[in-house]
Design goal:
Number of strands: 5
Number of helices: 5
Structural class: alpha+beta
Helix content: 25-40%
Number of domains: 1
Oligomer: single chain
Strand content: 15-25%
Order of helices and strands: HHHHEEEEEH
Distance between the termini: 35 Å
Radius of gyration: 15 Å
Length: 158
Amino acid sequence: MNAVVQLDWRNTDSTNDIGRYVEGRRPMLRRLAPALLTDQERQYAPWLADVAAGIDELLGLEANWDSYGAITPTRVAAGALLEILIEVTSPNTPRPVIVPSPAGHFQAEWHENGIDLEIEVISRTQIDVLFESAADSWNLVFKGDLSLLVEAVDQLSG
């Protein structure tokens, strides 16, 4: 398992500090999602590297990790989730909770600001999403255009 370096992002709002931290994690991020970090102008969520490190640790789960026959999460699933998070989040997006799914995928969850949003990335081209708020509720499978998902994630920022 990789050691997780914790930074207190509440003590800095500097995108340079965030950039240096993400830069230090590039080898791990590239290993999990090779196409991830090519755009130097991209503004990353400050929690991205910590989430990637947590996903890296979850890759160490063994088969049957839930005692109900769960499949070991895969690097392909990890890379797909990280790519989607980079695509749909912004620096203002709250940090998601990442959980493994028994099917060998990963799910990102947010439960805040009156919104429940759960994104299970089956593959880069199939994303199951559950969204619930006081004003709206839907459960969709995205296979291409992610604009509705980006809007849902933007609502989390308040």
